[in-house]
Write a structure and sequence with these properties.
InterPro entries: Glyco_trans_20 (IPR001830). One of its GO terms (molecular function) is alpha,alpha-trehalose-phosphate synthase (UDP-forming) activity. This protein is an alpha/beta fold. Helix content is 44%, strand content 20%. The strands form three sheets. A ten-stranded mixed beta sheet has the order 5-6-4-1-7-8-9-12-11-10, with helices on both faces. A six-stranded parallel beta sheet has the order 15-14-13-16-17-18, sandwiched between helices. The structure holds 6-O-phosphono-beta-D-glucopyranose. 6-O-phosphono-beta-D-glucopyranose (BG6) binds next to strand 1.
């Protein structure tokens, strides 16, 4: 359907919240992508004639503005070179590793920065065009950190919020960035800057004092031109009802029993579900599991690991290297401990339908979430939401944002400490039913009362109500 007109609520994100579906006759339509953010913002979109500005995911793709699900969608085109420099380059080979504790070395290239600036300008112009007088604009994530200031220059009448979905690093790391001042000034164009964790908001505030002309008191930054920018944590969450609805479907319950049969009905099913990303600590958890098998703490009959590794950013070199490393590790473990028809690790390099994922979450006795650094980690929360049966145990890295909220009911680990990780995996496998139930109740109490809708409401109330 064609749109549009002006909107009083505009979301600006690297990706549009839709996937293109091509029918047999070659015609294309758009289907809303799964994901918490769009679910949370959809009702706000409906109420306020909302528009979403973003990239379709394909090169040089610029369909005219269109609407779907009561949202106006405004596509921002990226050329192949911009995809290479802005998306794969500056966003995912400079900022992503820098903001995730330099797990791999960030690359600093001036042509990447130039492309990042140019593309951010394009997003800002698109948002400025679609926003109505005095509209609220909600900018998302590390790909678009210059948009708040660029947009304010074009449209000083707007109320601008920004939310960073990934960690925000401390001074010692952020200081490496040759364009650190420009990024901070970009973010200071917002009225409210949201982070996953309190520490990230603190990092931001002290960095602005150090590298810009702003001054700060508590979480309020005063810019050189006399504006006040607030910084605060708003831990993001999941669409709980989407998961609980799926869990109650008979197919999902049946599929979950099936999966356990298919993997040989072991006593313990351990599960990892991640984008194949070096931040996720997949190698660390495989190593710990392998050592448990090697030391005969567990046998391959007793415990099986399922690792879903969703393909991601496959043209970025560090992701290609990681894939080789993980697949080598899995191959070795299966060669060592597997038998015909019975691998020690079921490694699935694929993306799955939501129903299949929820079935897997219901099958897992131990959910293993061991990122070396993670903004939040929504899979940990999805596991909790799926366990309406109050069973299962969550092993969770203390370096995931989710550890701030789920630390009491989960088994917290430092994934770098392989012996500690082994002990924790064993403890989670050997947990008594009563303790598992008590921990799961505690986890669910938090997740069920802090879903994605609450996150969106809190952020927008803080943005609009100042
Ligand atoms: O968009 P990509 O590069 O495929 O990555 C998936 C997502 O990864 C998340 O962790 C980022 O915070 C999102 O912004 C991003 O969209």
């Amino acid at each position: 359907m064609e749109s549009t007109g002006k909107s009083t609520f505009v979301v600006v994100a690297n990706r549009l919240p839709v996937d293109r579906v091509t029918a047999a006759d070659g015609s294309t339509t758009w289907r809303r992508s799964p994901g918490g953010l769009v679910t949370a913002l959809a009702p706000v979109m409906r109420a306020y004639d909302g528009a979403w500005v973003g990239w379709t995911g394909s090169a040089d793709d610029a369909p005219a503005p269109f609407s779907t699900d009561d949202m106006d969608l405004v596509a921002v085109p990226l050329s192949p070179e911009e995809i290479n420099r802005y998306y794969e380059g500056f966003s995912n080979a400079t900022l992503w590793p820098l903001y995730h504790d330099v797990i791999v070395a960030p690359e600093y290239h001036r042509e990447w920065w130039d492309a990042y600036r140019r593309v951010n300008e394009r997003f800002a112009r698109a948002a400025a065009e679609v926003a109505d007088e005095g509209a609220v604009v909600f900018v998302q994530d590390y790909q678009l950190q210059l948009v708040p200031a660029l947009l304010r220059q074009l449209r000083p009448d707007l109320k601008i919020g920004f939310f960073l979905h990934i960690p925000f690093p401390p001074t010692e790391l952020f200081a490496q960035l040759p364009w650190r001042r420009q990024i901070l000034e970009g973010l200071l164009g917002a009225d409210l800057v949201g982070f996953q964790r309190e520490g990230a908001a603190d990092n931001f505030v002290s960095l602005t004092e150090r590298y810009t002309d702003a001054t700060a008191e508590d979480r309020r930054v005063r810019t050189a031109d006399g504006r006040t920018v607030r910084a605060r944590q708003f831990p993001i969450s999941i669409d709980v009802s989407e998961i609980t609805d799926l869990v109650s479907e008979p197919d999902v319950v049946m599929r979950s029993a099936h999966i356990r049969d298919e993997i040989g009905s072991p006593k313990h099913v351990l599960l990892g579900v991640d984008r194949l990303d070096y931040t996720k600590g997949i190698g660390h958890r495989l190593k710990a599991f392998g050592e448990l098998l090697a030391g005969e703490d567990i046998t391959p009959d007793e415990a099986v690991m399922v690792q879903v590794a969703t393909p991601s950013r496959e043209r970025v070199e560090a992701y290609q290297t990681l894939r080789d490393e993980i697949e080598l590790q899995v191959g070795r473990m299966n060669g060592e401990y597997g038998r015909i028809g019975q691998p020690a690790v079921h490694y699935l390099h694929s993306s799955y339908e939501r129903a299949e994922l929820v079935s897997l979450l219901r099958t897992a006795d131990v959910m293993v979430v061991t990122p070396l650094r993670d903004g939040m980690n929504l899979v940990a929360k999805e596991y909790v939401a799926a366990r309406t049966d109050l069973r299962g145990a969550l092993v969770l890295s203390e370096f995931a944002g989710a550890a701030d909220e789920l630390g009491d009911g989960a088994f917290l680990v430092n994934p770098h400490d392989i012996d500690g990780l082994k002990r924790t995996l064993l403890a989670a496998m050997r947990i008594e039913d009563a303790e598992a139930e008590q921990r799961m109740k505690q986890l669910r109490e938090h997740v069920l009362t802090h879903d994605i809708t609450r996150w969106a409401d809190d952020f927008l109330a803080a943005l609009i109500g100042d």
